[in-house]
């Protein structure tokens, strides 16, 4: 009887820990891969504010911000592939992405290594919006 109760208690604790860990890891800034995916989806959907948020905010002038917003609005992200995540340390990683972009009807495929940094438990894109 005591062993049965112990097993149920142990299983309950393990289930709660597993559920808690999976809930904690679901946020879009919980890993370099999820951050990059959320950023690229925001780009694809034209959600400039979300792109800025995932980059850690804007530190330039309002005029520069408006300029970058217009540039992003002109570029269409047709598709992307997250190729590889290279973890440098617990707070830094590089994410290799391949993008197919379209500008004024012309498509271009490019591969970039995006640097991402972890600050206060969340991952952020370290590069500017347009490099």
Account of the 3D structure:
The chain is α+β, with helices and mostly antiparallel strands and 131 residues long. It folds into 2 domains: 1-25; 31-125, Roll (Nuclear Transport Factor 2, Chain: A), CATH 3.10.450.50. The protein has helices at residues 2-24, 32-44, 48-54, 62-74; strands at residues 75-89, 92-103, 106-119, 122-125. Strands 1-2-3-4 form a 4-stranded antiparallel beta sheet. Strand 1 (75-89) and strand 2 (92-103) form a beta hairpin. The longest helix has 23 residues, at 2-24. It starts with a helix and ends in a 6-residue tail after the last strand. The relative contact order is 0.15. The model is unreliable at 6-24 (pLDDT under 50).
What would you say about this model in short?
With 131 residues, the chain is of the alpha+beta class.
Q: Tell me the radius of gyration.
A: 20 Å
Number of strands: 4
What average pLDDT do the residues reach? 83
The main sheet comes to: 4 strands, antiparallel
Estimate the strand proportion. Answer: 25-35%
Please, how many helices? 4
Overall structural class, as computed from helix and strand content, comes to alpha+beta
Q: How are the strands ordered across the major sheet? A: 1-2-3-4
CATH fold topology of the largest domain: Nuclear Transport Factor 2, Chain: A
Which CATH class of the largest domain is shown?
Alpha Beta
Uncertain runs are 6-24
* Tally of separate domains: 2
Helix content: 40-55%
Helix-strand pattern: HHHHEEEE
Architecture (CATH level 2) name of the largest domain: Roll
Q: Identify the overall geometry.
A: globular
Termini Cα gap = 65 Å
Regarding quaternary structure, how should these chains be classified? single chain
